[in-house]
């Protein structure tokens, strides 16, 4: 059973219109693997992907700002339909401001999920700063919320569920998804 979120955190979550994430350490566990030919390999958790789909289906934008670029990352973001992707970006705070301006969003409507020192500038600018359970201690000190789940193991799904739940839309979002994949099926219990 997940710990209850504070009313203040739930209010912030309810107002989020854009979820922006780092990749390594958030959508992955941060491990860097290389194949025999030097190609980079990454593991992504399917729960995170489904969480992003639920958010997009409910009109919440999703984006990635990451310092790295790799073929597996490009493929995964395309597969997930992530609308806004910024690769090779070391100045994440500036990139976040630029994305907010492009979308016409106030920073208070943006959540950023990061796990390490490179993410601090974006975390400080975002209206809601989130880190994963295994985020760096200095990052954990400055965020609004630390997930119970570690990065790369469904933390983004935990965040997606919390965002939707704070809006009172989690159950309906899940029902909508079930209707898409099983028309006429029994739905949720």
UniProtKB/TrEMBL annotation:
- Name one matching Pfam family: Hydrolase_3
Listed InterPro entries: CMP-NeuNAc_synthase, HAD-like_sf, HAD-SF_hydro_IIIA, HAD_sf, KdsC_fam
Amino-acid positions noted as binding Mg(2+) in the UniProt annotation, renumbered to this chain: 22, 115
Q: What is its EC number?
A: 3.1.3.45
Q: Does the keyword Cell inner membrane apply?
A: no
Gene3D superfamilies annotated for this entry? HAD superfamily/HAD-like
The top EC class is: hydrolase
Molecular-function GO terms, alphabetical: 3-deoxy-manno-octulosonate-8-phosphatase activity; metal ion binding; N-acylneuraminate cytidylyltransferase activity
Binding residues annotated for substrate, in chain numbering = 24, 53, 68, 76, 92
Keywords assigned by UniProt, alphabetized = Hydrolase, Magnesium, Metal-binding
Q: What cofactor does its activity depend on?
A: Mg(2+)
Q: Indicate yes or no for the key word Hydrolase.
A: yes
Q: Which family does it belong to?
A: Belongs to the KdsC family.
Oligomeric state and partners?
A: Homotetramer.
The name under which this protein is listed is 3-deoxy-D-manno-octulosonate 8-phosphate phosphatase, YrbI family
Q: From what organism does this protein derive?
A: Haliangium ochraceum (strain DSM 14365 / JCM 11303 / SMP-2)
